[in-house]
């Protein structure tokens, strides 16, 4: 059956209905503000769940409050530090977003950056023997981490699939990351000691896990959060979001005073708008050689007297990394 085409009048009616819905949604926080007790004081908190217009904000005592965001303050995301005020029925209204120390974004369908999580300190990049790892994707994540100023670590998951020389060979393939200062963890959910080492490495940090589909992210989250169901129940009870809590961007508590942000948005993460200068800044081992090429706009390809090409030929930069740089550069908009 062919799809029925809507008339111009029907399209106008649909748009009018959607606009009225948006207006009603926008006025909800403003109406809630009218319920404020004059004696209530603004408080600081952290967004630990976001599902549409619904926010769960954790206060300084660890209490979670269901909040709405006031109109025109921006778009709060999981991990944001916010100012909120209590209203009736143990709920609240977020009235301001505090300055972010970092924000992880991805481009939307229109090419505009869409924030996914805020105030991160750690980006954990997952790889595994299966599916075949993509160094190009790893380098894309590393450029993103360098760009927002957070520490990146490499996590080789599902290592129980490899034994003996095969495991050693796999680790050796990624040795060039450790050589330029990226901490690397080799783990398996079947090897508890390796999980404990990773948990210790995430202590005191606000982290997010990223990686291609099939690397075992969901299983690893369960291993890192043995009380995940309890935490979900606590958040669901406090916010009234129920089953939506499991599909919303959520900030969980890790042991060791750390936090883990699990966001559906990172499953299809892509590098946002970036220019050539910003891209090469994302390759940390390039830093000593930038500005030393013969040409100021050097693309580190076939140009004469290129300091980066010279460093690769002398073994100071891994050729795999230069190949990733070239691929990313060729995919950028002119």
Written overview of the protein:
- With 334 residues, the protein is an alpha/beta fold.
- The chain has three domains: 71 residues, Nucleic acid-binding proteins (OB fold (Dihydrolipoamide Acetyltransferase, E2P), Beta Barrel); 166 residues, Rossmann fold (3-Layer(aba) Sandwich), CATH 3.40.50.300; 55 residues, Ribonucleotide Reductase Protein R1, domain 1, CATH 1.10.40.
- It is built from ten helices and 13 strands.
Outline the fold blueprint.
Elements: H1 8-33, E1 43-51, E2 54-58, E3 64-69, E4 81-87, E5 91-97, E6 103-107, E7 113-118, E8 122-127, H2 135-148, E9 151-156, H3 164-173, H4 175-179, E10 184-186, H5 192-202, E11 206-211, H6 217-224, H7 228-239, E12 249-254, E13 258-262, H8 276-281, H9 307-313, H10 319-330
Parallel strand pairs: 3-5, 8-9, 8-11, 9-10, 11-13
Antiparallel strand pairs: 1-2, 1-4, 1-12, 2-3, 4-5, 6-7, 12-13
Descriptive terms for the model:
334 residues, alpha/beta, OB fold (Dihydrolipoamide Acetyltransferase, E2P), Rossmann fold, Ribonucleotide Reductase Protein R1, domain 1, five-stranded mixed beta barrel, 10 helices
